[in-house]
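Design request, C-alpha cells follow.
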C-alpha cells in the first residue's frame, strides 16, 4: 500500500468512529482535519459533522466553531 492509500485508510477509520460516536472525540476530529488531502475528503467530513447536528436542539459550540472554520476553507464559487 502506498503512503497516500494508508493515509486515506487512516482518515476513513477515524471518520467512521466520529460517525458512530454520539459525542465524537475532539482528538479524532483534529487528527482527521490534519490529514485531509482533498476537497472531496473535506466535504465528506463536513457531511458527517452536519449529521451530528441533526436533531440536536442545543449543538455544541465547539462543533459549530469547527464547522464554521472548515466551511470557510472551502473554495468559493
Amino acid at each position: 500500500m502506498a503512503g497516500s492509500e494508508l493515509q486515506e485508510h487512516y482518515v476513513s477509520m477515524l471518520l467512521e468512529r466520529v460517525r458512530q460516536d454520539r459525542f465524537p472525540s475532539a482528538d479524532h476530529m483534529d487528527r482527521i482535519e490534519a490529514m485531509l488531502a482533498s476537497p472531496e475528503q473535506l466535504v465528506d467530513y463536513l457531511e458527517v459533522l452536519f449529521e451530528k447536528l441533526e436533531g440536536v436542539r442545543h449543538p455544541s459550540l465547539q462543533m459549530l466553531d469547527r464547522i464554521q472554520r472548515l466551511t470557510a476553507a472551502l473554495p468559493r464559487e
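Comment from the thread starter after seeing the answer: thanks! DSSP finds four helices and no strands in the chain.
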